[in-house]
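User: Hey, my collaborator sent me this sequence without any context and asked if I could get a structure. I don't really work with proteins. Can you help?
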Amino acid sequence: MVTRMSKFRIAISIFLLFLCAPRSFPLDMSDAGSTLADVFEWATDDNEGLTTFRSLNIPVGGRSESLGSACTALCDDISFFDYNPAASSVLPQTELAVFHNAWIADSAMETISATSRDGNFGYGAQVKCFYVPFSEYNLYGDRVGGSYYTETSATLNASYNFLAGYDFKGLAVGVNTRFSWRGVPDYTDNQTDEIISGSGLEQSALAVMADLGVLLRFNFLKNFADRNPNLSFGLSLNNAGAAFTGFGSSVGIDDPLPTRLSVGAAYRVFAPILLTAEIRKPLNFMDFSSSGALSIASGMEISVTRFFNFDMGFLVQGGNPRISMGSGFLVKAFQMNVNYTFDLTSSQNPVNHISLSAKVKLGDKGRSEIQDQVDAYYINGLRLYAEGDLDGAIVQWNLAIALDKRFDPAIDAKVAAIRFQNAKQAIMDMQKLDISISGKKSE
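Assistant: No problem. I've predicted the 3D structure and written it out in structure-token form, which is a compact way to encode the shape of the chain:
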């Protein structure tokens, strides 16, 4: 029998094994990549690459990337920031997470996120930074400068889940406000090889944008016991705003942002099997005729045990198929995810990279304790109802409703009990009337 400590050691060992792995696998799949890319040549997008702040399209990594980034409707963890801002109002616990995505050509994305909620109001914040090493050489091949090209984003989130109840899980609506900064390092003078102060600032840029999202969750053909809904639909508009460049001289409008409209669905077929899919449409608000082509994403998660799950995903964007897979390990309050992605950005030179995430669950602010008390009142009401004490049952159900005004089982049971009482009283009144009439006739 595997002990808790053994599970912990196994999970940590596997996680460290991936952590110490190289940034990319020496996996030569050029022939397979070329063949697969040719299959999706029909999806090639002539308008791909026309937007600025391209790092906004790079997934933070971990579980969401393993699922093919098809998370607009799923959004059941802290990865929601990049997919659907409505999700913070439905997450069960306060979460803090860090992400590392080893992207291509020594570039990387580092992210830290935090989210919490009070009742049906959710909120959170995220900071992520994409960086690429920058080296400058003169005409003689001598290295004369070195720094980093960066794109840093800070996001604030707020959302609310309307009409949330036991049967209908509510309609969640959310918004992200995001500020992004593109930092370009100063470059040198070709004649003197001296760094020109402020030269990078002229090419740097500031972007201000917003995300809007809607999330609808309910049960459909559910064949397992779980209070969480098994079907959800999501709709979101991401990165809608404008970018400004030319700081240090005259400020001007930069290229359009990578704005996109996404619609998706997530369905838990059985308790251990989750399917998710979505369609995305890039939008160019400066020139709608230059908007990108549709892209599709899908993912599947298999929960092998309570503390281990396996994920896989597929994304086609701009004719470039991306295959991903990963796994997650739950150790008490800590969730760790490792992802591997095979990205056919180039059919002749496919890219392979790893991303990691680690998050900690910091509790639910007493919501589970309240729910346990609601359940206790409800069960007590059922017991009293079975014993024929309708008044006592209604008192217990009123206590449950006072703690959770949309706890449908107690509401329905109370209505049924009151109707039964009314019917019983009506029958008793009719019996009294019959007795009265019979007495008068006998006289």
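In plain terms: The chain has six helices and 15 strands. You can pass these tokens on to your collaborator as they are.
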